[in-house]
Amino acid sequence: IILRVWFKNRQKTFHNINQKDVMQRLQSGRHFLQIPGPTNVPDRILRAIERPTIDHRGPEFKGLGLELLESIKEIFQTKQPVIIYPSSGTGAWEAALVNTLSSGDRVLMYDTGHFASTWRKLAEKLSLDAQLLHGSWREGAKPEEIEQALVEDKDHTIKSVCVVHNDTATGITSDIPAIRKAIDRAGHTALFCVDTISSLASIDYRHDEWGVDVTVGGSQKGLMLPPGLSFNAISKKALVASGEAKLPRSYWDWQDMLNANKQGVFPYTPATNLLYGLRESIRMLLEEGLDQVFSRHSRLAEATRAAVQAWGLELNALNQSEYSNSLTAVVLPQGHDADVFRKWVLECFNVSLGNGLGRLNGKVFRIGHLGDFNEPMLLGTLGAIEMGLELAEIPHRPEGVRAAMSNLVENNR
After folding, report:
1. How far is CA 48 from CA 44, 67, 75, 180, 326, in A?
2. Which of 340, 353, 359 is nearest to 308 (CA)?
3. Residue 13: pLDDT band by 50, 70, 90 thresholds?
4. Which residue among 47, 187, 282, 328 is least packed, with the fewest CB closer than 10 Å?
5. Is the pTM of this model over 0.90?
6. 201 near 293, Cβ under 8 Å?
7. What angle do CA 107, 317, 381 make, to 5 degrees?
8. What is the DSSP string of 3-36?
């Protein structure tokens, strides 16, 4: 009763004070950046990035470059080359396409969410014939539908299959090994390209073992870095395709990068200080161990889902096997605006949550639980959300934090 009286008074107070006053009162303590990326950058990486910049043609940098180009392979679980670009993940999307395809080539894509849809739009701007298999945005890519589309493509006019491993907008993870098997059953020669921007270093991913030809990655999520680096891990088959591809490319050209990378340098000025951070990120991930990193993300994601279910709210992802371990997208009851709710949480508790994108705009909020993240940080985030649900008068059961705590205790025994 006392708590509910406090909440009612807090609601009245919130409505009676202006935005500036609210934000001024909430500057103490740390800001909780719980969007699904960019994620919190740990102190070790911040300290690495703040080192003085060095000559990117000198011997010290060459040593750094050679070390990174070898060690990043372990994160992608590949023995093949990984190309590092100074760009956002969108740049790596483009690089994956322009290095392997020619104008008018057909590309098969599966619409698992906003980012899959956006990748398709990029492909169309590059004069590719992007065929989209429509999804509900509540389920992952269906291998059987991809297989059927490839079986029907008797002349093998489809040159590439592009799938987002973990769609950051919908909180859905697709089964990449199952899709690889579907491509093989169809006996099709299409390349297999996968976006891992919000799954790399958070969810188990194996470029070589899973038979992926081009893997796209970004620095600002599981790698715990600021935005600004992106990646293409490339198979031997993809390298052959790059020799035949006719789409114009200069900045994104794999061969120029590979030629320079042999000496540990890049064909243009690299993001030197971000590369310092990447070296520290890889060291941190390997010190913890990739299996432990994936286990930690799984444990925190399960506790988050336990909280959502205890609140009586709905997960956007329908299938348990496709729940994301990087983020959780939560559907609010009809009649409640997710962006208004997010504003309550930010202005009252200094916690940033992800917004709904595309067709989910205003309908969902997203909880990021990836990168440099642990149990106390999760409980602080969930506590802010539970208080926000009360303040915003969204129907729920105030049992989510307790459910998450019980889940974490059980999984840490």
Report:
1. 6, 15, 19, 38, 25
2. 353
3. low
4. 187
5. yes
6. yes
7. 120
8. HHHHHHHHHHHHHHS-HHHHHHHT-SS--EEESS
